[in-house]
Design brief:
The complex is a heterodimer of chains A (256) and B (421). With 256 residues, chain A is an alpha/beta fold. Chain A has ten helices and ten strands. With 421 residues, chain B is α/β, with parallel strands linked by helices. Chain B contains 14 helices and 17 strands. In chain B, helix 13 links the parallel strand 13 and strand 14. In chain B, helix 1 packs antiparallel against helix 2. Classes of the chains: A alpha/beta (256), B alpha/beta (421). At the A-B interface, helix 5 and helix 7 of A face loops of B.
């Protein structure tokens, strides 16, 4: 954990004149888990969408892996090693778990489209490699029993895990998780927390996550950024944030 | 070459059918194979590592692992050196397992991974050698007491190169092969006590031979080791027959995938516990069509037809109609309902369904009977010992206990147990 992998400088974003985020700046070090917290409508998901290029900011810039960018395109974000999961699960519900995870490997596929279409040249060997990698992720997240199950038939907590698997299959350097534990029970949250920690520990992945469960955030994160009405009101370690009077007044105080 | 110990039989099988598949293990969705020759070589290598670290005849290797080939091979390596394998049942209540480990303070351990290592640490155990299979999350320990399985094998290659290995196992038929421990109260109002059961190679192979004869097991058979070998029944009726008959032993990817893997394999030999069979029964019940629907009536008719064609269930108290001869009705029932249902639970090819341990309720036996699965209960002739005031008290299956002088066969192991905390 040294230099920042991601640095947001003075990011502002509005929708038809309504300000979603205003002048937000913070940095995420390589290999850390950074949590974005704040009440509903604070601008957390908008900020995540700015990071991976879904939204273009009105002003400010992003520095990622040493490159300063005015705007990031979603496909460029994926190529640069940014993967994400969504607040509302965005999986291919009619496909199996394995096939969903394999879609996360799309950018890693070698060989031309012709080789892939005719299954010649590099394609057969590549297929084995992609399957092996997908299986490693499936094992990592302990979803082997549902490997061939249709995703739409799985319980919500498992679908969340499959979505994480698909994101991890892309071997991201930066992983954006939008409420990975929403709607989960205590046990499922504990499992997911462990998988997130293991992802950081085993793969060295930098993680930015949005989470409402303050207990989980404080245990899981190295770094917490607090937003309120589109503005940053706190930025520091969990301990620092916990002791920040502005944060206590605006957010933590009312939640406890 | 001795045929009266487990390692001796392994050596025999490696010589007889070295190129045949001994073990299959599913990993990352793919079945991998180990041949008899490879198993024998790996066991020898592991024995070399254990020996180099000071493991001696009579020492106990504790296995804290769900079924996986590494646990089996290390167990055979320990037995090769005249040691005892002591599998710890990880499906028991965590607190009970913790108390067992606190009472035993294992010196030689194979642990599956992070969770099992944490359990050992919580029990205050400081093993002289701990070999672990799954490196995920395991904090590197530089004391050299902790070795990843892959590291152990690499070390073995060096050890074997430096000093060629003993070609014959250092074990005798009367030696203990297994020690099983449990925490159990004899009466409801009593505190649980640490109890011990030991099995010698001789006893194990005798039981195995009996099963082999009765069930006519062949090298072509396939068995699934879903719970191996945390209960003595699995050692008696799965491990010993495997080495005696030379069939293939299959390990599921993990405990959670065992039903899927069984379905994929279609083993001919299943050694399940009461829980196994009841889980499979409920798996079928969940898939049955809604009561009253024509599909459900079809299933019920097929089960009745199938049941009526078979010999009466031995546990039955009511007379059952004499089985009719082959009929078109039976053929239809088999084709439409019975075979698909057997396939759902992975019993499509099973001809030896064994029940190890506690008996099944009659309703479950009847259910499997109607599917053409005649579950056989091989009751364990198991004696448990409790050490009290220099005496070993023998406990057998809830019967009144009998206090005896510590029997010679149990004395060595009992003395290693220590006092339960």
């Amino acid at each position: 954990m040294s230099s920042p992998l991601l640095e947001l400088s003075h990011i502002s974003l509005s929708f038809k004149g309504v300000k979603a985020v205003t002048d937000i700046s913070f940095a995420v070090k390589e290999g850390e888990i950074c949590a974005l917290i704040g009440p509903n409508g604070a601008g957390k998901s908008s900020l995540l969408n700015v990071i991976n290029g879904v939204y273009q900011p009105d002003s400010g810039d992003i520095q990622y892996a040493g490159d300063r960018l005015k705007r990031m395109q979603p496909h460029a974000a994926a190529r640069r090693g940014i993967a994400r999961t969504f607040q509302n699960i965005a999986l291919f519900k009619g496909m199996s778990v394995l096939d969903n995870v394999l879609t996360g490997r799309n950018l890693k596929v070698r060989g031309s489209w012709l080789e892939q279409a005719l299954h010649i040249g590099r394609a057969p060997g590549d297929e084995v490699i992609q399957r092996q990698r997908a299986e490693e992720i499936i094992e990592f997240l302990r979803i082997q029993p549902w490997r061939n199950s249709i995703v739409g038939t799985l319980p919500y907590g498992l679908q969340k895990r499959v979505e994480l698997a698909r994101a991890l299959a892309a071997e991201p350097r930066l992983l954006l998780l939008d409420e990975p534990m929403a709607g989960m029970n205590h046990e499922e949250k504990a499992d997911m927390s462990r998988f997130i920690l293991d992802t950081q520990r085993e793969f060295g992945t930098t993680i930015v996550l949005i989470e409402h469960d303050i207990g989980v955030v404080m245990n899981l994160s190295d770094h917490v950024v607090v937003l309120d009405y589109g503005k940053k009101i706190g930025d520091g370690t969990p301990q620092e944030v916990r002791e920040n009077p502005e944060v206590i007044a605006a957010y933590l105080g009312t939640s406890h | 070459m001795s045929h009266d110990t487990l390692p001796g039989l392994l050596q025999h099988q490696a010589a007889q059918r070295g190129a045949d598949v001994a073990i299959r293990h599913k990993q990352l969705g793919i079945w991998h194979v180990l041949r008899w020759q490879e198993v024998w070589r790996e066991v020898q290598h592991l024995a070399a590592v254990l020996q180099a670290r000071g493991f001696q005849k009579g020492d106990a290797l504790f296995l804290l692992s769900h079924p996986r080939p590494q646990a089996l091979l290390l167990q055979l390596a320990a037995q090769w050196l005249g040691g005892v394998a002591a599998p710890v049942d990880l499906l028991a209540a965590r607190d009970d397992t913790l108390r067992v480990l606190q009472g035993l303070r294992p010196t030689w351990v194979f642990a599956e991974g992070e969770d099992e290592i944490a359990l050992l640490a919580e029990a205050g155990a400081v093993p002289r050698l701990l070999i672990y299979a799954d490196q995920r999350g395991v904090v590197a320990n530089h004391s050299s007491a902790h070795l990843a399985y892959a590291e152990a094998l690499a070390l073995a290659a060096e050890t074997v190169q430096a000093a060629p290995q003993q070609q014959a196992p250092l074990v005798a038929a009367v030696d203990h092969a297994f020690a099983f421990y449990r925490l159990e109260a004899q009466q409801a109002d009593q505190a649980p006590q640490l109890q011990l059961q030991t099995i010698s190679h001789h006893e194990l192979l005798n039981e195995g031979r009996r099963l082999l004869r009765q069930e006519n097991l062949k090298p072509q058979d396939e068995a699934l080791a879903a719970r191996a070998f945390a209960a003595s029944g699995h050692a008696r009726y799965l491990l010993a027959p495997w080495l005696l008959a030379g069939f293939r032993l299959n390990f599921p990817e993990n405990l959670a995938t065992r039903d899927n893997d069984r379905r994929e394999l279609g083993p001919t030999l299943v050694a399940g516990t009461r829980e196994t069979y009841q889980r499979l029964e409920s798996l079928v019940q969940q898939r049955l069509p809604q009561a009253g629907s024509w599909r459900r009536r079809l299933v019920d008719w097929a089960l009745r037809t199938s049941s009526a064609t078979r010999k009466p269930l031995v546990v039955s108290l009511r007379p059952v109609a004499k089985p009719p001869r082959f009929s078109l009705q039976l053929l239809l029932a088999q084709w439409l309902v019975i075979n698909p249902l057997r396939d759902v639970i992975g019993f499509s090819r099973t001809r030896v369904p064994l029940l190890v341990g506690e008996p099944l309720p009659e309703s479950s036996l009847r259910f499997f009977h109607s599917l053409g699965i005649e579950v056989r209960n091989w009751e364990e002739q198991a004696y448990w010992y409790v050490l009290e005031g220099g005496k070993a008290r023998v406990v057998k299956r809830g019967h009144a206990s009998l206090t005896l002088p510590t029997p010679a066969v149990a004395a060595a192991s009992v003395s290693t147990v220590g006092s339960p905390s």
